[in-house]
Design brief:
Blueprint (H helix, E strand, L loop, with lengths): L7 H4 L2 E2 L5 E2 L10 H29 L3 H23 L7 H21 L7 H14 L15 H30 L3
Length: 184
């Protein structure tokens, strides 16, 4: 075996069985608890800095709910109110008449959300449409058709026919019971 190269002992390199050299094991500066807590503290500071910067970035680019709410009420709702007044209150429950206006209202809220970088649909949109439904569609049936009684020409036979059948059957039972009393 040959002697180690000059300076090998000073650098800390060791010679293996194959004659190759491997570096000495590393140790962190200030090894021990103090070194680990310093590294943890640096990592904690980095995470805190990222959190603070991310919070400001999100706050600067997030949806401004107050502005979004104001815009859908003053632009979309005003246009919807004008259209619904033009349709007339008698036809509010007629889906064929209101579907276009309702679609415009929906599109308006979606476009404003897109312009303001807001998600759509969101909580504000849900609350907005619940308020619209309470104001304009509270008396409408779920099918969208206004409920009303059928004409008398259809309604009267459905009322009179069961009454007449009941009276006829009662008369038949009484007549039959009297007829059988005499025969024993």
């Amino acid at each position: 075996m040959s002697p180690p190269p000059p300076g090998a002992e000073r650098s800390g390199a060791t010679t293996g069985a194959g004659g190759g050299s491997r570096p000495p094991p590393r140790s962190l500066p200030g090894a021990g608890c103090a070194g680990q807590s310093a590294a943890a503290m640096a990592l904690l500071q980095q995470r805190f800095l990222c959190f603070v910067l991310a919070h400001h970035f999100i706050a600067a680019t997030a949806c401004q709910e107050a502005g979004y709410s104001w815009m859908i009420k003053h632009y979309c709702l005003k246009q919807f109110q004008l259209s619904m007044e033009g349709i007339g209150q008698r036809l509010w429950c007629d889906w064929d008449e209101t579907v276009g206006t309702y679609g415009e209202l929906t599109n308006c809220t979606a476009l404003i959300a897109e312009r303001l970088d807001c998600y759509w649909p969101n909580r504000l949109v849900d609350e907005f449409f619940v308020a619209v439904h309470k104001q304009y569609f509270r008396n409408c049936s779920p099918s969208g058709r206004a409920l009303h009684d059928p004409p008398n020409s259809i309604l009267c036979p459905f009322i009179l026919l069961p009454i007449l059948v009941t009276l006829l059957m009662t008369a038949l039972v009484v007549w039959r019971s009297k007829r059988s009393e005499g025969i024993v």
